[in-house]
Specification:
This protein is an alpha/beta fold. The chain has three domains: about 5-260, TIM Barrel; about 300-370, no CATH class; about 400-525, Alpha-isopropylmalate synthase LeuA, regulatory domain (Double Stranded RNA Binding Domain, 2-Layer Sandwich), CATH 3.30.160.270. Helices cover about 35% and strands about 20% of the residues. It contains 19 helices and 18 strands. An eight-stranded parallel beta barrel has the order 2-3-4-5-6-7-8-9, surrounded by six helices. A three-stranded antiparallel beta sheet has the order 13-14-15, with helices on one face. Helix 1 packs antiparallel against helix 13, helix 6 packs across helix 7 (about 155-165) and helix 17 (about 380-390) packs across helix 19. The protein starts with a strand and ends in a 5-residue tail after the last helix. Pfam families: HCS_D2, HMGL-like, LeuA_dimer.
């Protein structure tokens, strides 16, 4: 018989406090729907009255199947519950529940609130009563609870007990500065459960010591039955407990999976990686490659010995199946890998080659030689696939580039403004047809070259219409007069949604860019089944 464990997401409030994150109303609605589809029980939308976005969010129906929660302070010291504008905004908000933040550290009550310990308890009591009187489910976040407990356990407990006795559904113990360690969390929560039952307790952990997930799990072991966290661990300073790590741990690790049930189904769990990356896409930032469970490198191996073993028995080298969280296994091809890595990558892209084929050794030698001069095939699997196909003789001679030219001119335009114009000209030959010459003006040399190259490819033009360049990264591998430039280009097929990365290396940044651009086009032609 499993016990229910509830998930409370604070991305829309705590996450919005992340440096560089500013959610629009549309963003909040999209994220709320993602959270509800994932199976999150509670979604904290924000602080109605604190800003126009949150006020508007709580003035409408969000259309999500989750307990949508408003966040705000208990009544101010010295005011009555009926004469506090902030409390009135919370009570009037279109929300299923209200989460009050309350001081539970005696020092903060005296110094920050500048009131008495008794008045703070009265604020908690009156606020819970007011919200329950309006038919709302009530949560009380006991701010800095663990610091307060260490300083004065009797008073911290009094705050939690007051909220509980007045009918708060959840009393949430907050490690607000993220400084408490897992063994302390487990001990203190265990002591709190003697006063407030575990099925009424929650945990809200910040990540300032990189232990928010561990602290949340320790609290569950000690008795709490609600976990608060954010998508991708967003939050102020070092972030909050990361639900992208907590959810699969609770679902897939035996100690928790056999004891607890959460609202996330197995099918929803398979969308975890997609949800994580969708949020990063909305924030216009690259996913954390090394994030547990959902990161692009979470199930990647580069070492030859491990690669060979993974191919034979992946279950013994991976702590969970990548597919269970919507991720995938990758065996990288690099100068540190061996034949197993090459064979694994070839199999992944659908190239079946006998393990004793002498061309495999030749391909591995070429990879090592090219990576020694700057190529990075682990970051550009599409270029590796093309390299392998060329060595195996399976890449048609689609396009021959006869020449290209890029001209950058600084001039005064017709409006009298000083501008920098870039024009690229490309001459290509497609099969036995007459050479094709295309020119284009772009924002910088790479953009102009990309536009000119894809402007007219004759019989192959229809195959590349949906192709677009979506990211461009440059790295100078060594300085001085012998500098070498590595260019990585990410491309997307608008028709299929597929993305791929190609690489080019040269002392000349334009040449390196052109290599990566050509690889991207040829890769698209192969994937589209273009005839040679």
């Amino acid at each position: 018989m499993t016990e229910r464990l509830y998930l409370f997401d604070t991305t829309l409030r705590d996450g919005a406090q992340t440096n560089g994150v500013d959610f629009t109303l549309a963003d909040k609605l999209v994220i709320a729907r993602m959270l509800a589809e994932l199976g999150i029980d509670y979604i904290e939308g924000g602080y109605p009255g604190a800003n126009p976005t949150d006020t508007e969010l709580f003035a409408q129906d969000r259309g999500v199947k989750a307990t949508f929660t408003a966040f705000g302070m208990t009544r101010r010291p010295g005011r009555s519950a009926s004469n506090d504008p902030g409390l009135a905004m919370l009570l009037d908000a279109h929300a299923d529940a209200i989460c009050f933040v309350a001081k539970s550290w005696d020092y903060h009550v005296r110094v920050a609130l500048e009131t008495t310990l008794e008045e703070n308890l009265a604020s908690i009591r009156d606020s819970v009563q007011a919200a329950r009187g309006r038919g709302r489910e009530v949560l009380v976040d006991c701010e800095h609870f663990f610091d307060g407990y260490k300083a004065d356990p009797d008073y911290a407990l009094a705050c939690a007990e007051t909220a509980f006795k007045e009918g708060a559904r959840w009393v949430v113990l907050c490690d607000t500065n993220g400084g408490t360690l897992p063994h302390e969390i487990e001990r203190i929560v265990g002591e709190v459960t003697r006063t407030v039952p575990g099925e009424r307790l929650g945990i809200h952990a910040h990540n300032d010591t990189e232990q928010a997930v561990a602290n949340s799990l320790a609290a569950v072991r000690a008795g709490v039955r609600q976990i608060q966290g954010t998508l991708n661990g967003l939050g102020e300073r070092c972030g909050n407990a990361n639900l992208m790590s907590l959810i699969p741990t609770l679902k897939l690790k035996r100690e928790f999976a056999e004891t607890f049930d959460i609202g996330v189904s197995d099918r929803a769990l398979e969308s975890l990686t997609r949800v994580s990356r969708k949020l990063d896409e909305m924030l216009n930032r690259a996913p954390d490659r090394h994030a547990p469970y959902v990161g692009p490198s979470a199930f990647v191996t580069k070492a030859g010995i491990h690669a060979s073993a993974i191919l034979k028995d992946p279950a013994t080298y991976e702590h969970v199946r990548p597919e269970s969280v919507g991720n995938r296994r990758d065996v990288l091809v690099s100068d540190q890998g061996g034949r197993s890595n090459v064979l694994a990558e070839l199999a992944r892209v659908g190239l079946v080659v006998d393990k004793d084929d002498p061309r495999i050794g030749g391909l591995l030698d070429v990879v090592k030689e090219r990576e020694a001069i700057g190529y990075a095939y682990e970051s550009a699997p599409a270029s590796f696939e093309l390299l392998a196909r060329r060595m195996l003789g399976t890449v048609p001679d689609y396009v021959e580039v006869l020449k290209f030219d890029v001209n950058v001119e600084h001039r005064i335009n017709a409006l009298g403004k000083r501008v920098t114009a870039t024009v690229a000209v490309v001459k290509v030959k497609v099969g036995d047809d007459e050479p094709l010459i295309s020119a284009a003006e772009g924002i910088g040399p790479v953009h102009a070259l990309d536009l000119a190259l894809r402007k007219d490819l004759g019989r192959y033009q229809d195959y590349i219409k949906s192709l677009s360049l979506t990211d461009y990264r440059v790295r100078i591998l060594n300085g001085g007069t012998e500098a070498v430039t590595r260019v990585l280009i990410e491309s997307t097929d608008a028709d299929t949604g597929d993305t791929w990365t190609t690489v080019g290396v040269s002392p000349n940044i334009i040449d390196a860019s052109f290599q990566a651009l050509m690889d991207s086009i040829v890769y698209k032609l192969i994937r589209s089944g273009a005839p040679g």
